[in-house]
Amino acid sequence: MTPRLHHGGSRSTEREQLELFRALPSDLAPRDAQDLMAYPFFSLAKTRRTTPIDFNMGAVSIKVEATAEHGIATIWDADVLIWAASQIVEARDKGIKTSRLMATTPYEILNFIGRTTSARDYQRLKAALDRLQSTSVATSIRQPNERRRHRFSWINEWKETADASGRPLGVELILPDWFYAGVLDEALVLTIDPAYFALTGGLERWLYRLVRKHGGRQDGGWSFDFEHLHAKSGALSPLKRFAFDLREIVRRQPLPNYQLSIRRGQLGAELLVFVPIPLDPLERASRRLDLSCLPVDNS
Predict the structure, then answer these.
(1) What are phi and psi of 170, to 5 degrees?
(2) pTM for the predicted model, two decimal places
């Protein structure tokens, strides 16, 4: 078996110190890390982004940088991390020992995230792994001293494995401590709807993750100031364009399990309102919601 390595230097001792975790069958509930759902860690654009994401709000600071060759990891690339989180949580709940060193096949990842298993999607997966490995993140989140930042890449290293004839056998990757520790904390992981993977726009994907995170905190709904959303998204587009895109998303209603609307706040600012859609048709029909009473998130 001939490994093909993708990392910054020679084979590290890190791999030798970790036990290999082999991926479980891919019929798992998708789980997402709440920290990644709430803040701008990924590019929302389908074109290559090399402009850093530099986010500071309250005690939270995030700096995301990339190489010119690969660009910043995108929100589509983050599907690989959702797969990894789902694997770790499922194994933990079954009493199976997990590890940051994971072995799987491209087929298992692609099937889980709703992609085809064509040669094209296989190449896209390899490009996603390269971006995840080459993207540099520094954040104060989950640091005891908010002045200190934890620095990491989304994947420490990854490699393809192949047999003697060069036929691909699988993929191995190493997750960073910061991500792995967050996934192991039950309070920091949420189940998401598998329909998320069918969302095609970067902004609507980011928006779903944001409202899903807040959905557990407010059964009656939540609202977000447009300007606050713009700052929290890390998007490069100006606020005017960002607001236009939000209105288009409200018109299309693409987010699974959430109804979106727009209202004006007390000072006239536009607010994006989301309300969970009840599964029970009778409850859905009888619900009468006073939108003026919804809390506004500015955190």
Answers:
(1) 175, -165
(2) 0.88
